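Saturday, quiet lab. Running sequence design on the structure tokens for the scaffold JK sent over.
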């Protein structure tokens, strides 16, 4: 929309933050599962 045309950098930063957050969340989830599976 207009916001993207106005400030493309903001949109890029938003996307990067979302990707980093998802990667961090997945890592935490995998770590938790690993901890639960280990005796």
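Result came back. Writing it out in full:
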């Amino acid at each position: 929309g207009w916001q993207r045309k106005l400030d493309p950098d903001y949109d890029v930063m938003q996307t990067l933050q979302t990707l980093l957050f998802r990667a961090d969340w997945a890592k935490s989830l995998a770590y938790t599962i690993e901890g639960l599976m280990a005796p």
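Notes for JK: The mean pLDDT is 85. The CA atoms of residues 6 and 34 lie 44 Å apart. Ask whether to fix the surface positions before the next round.
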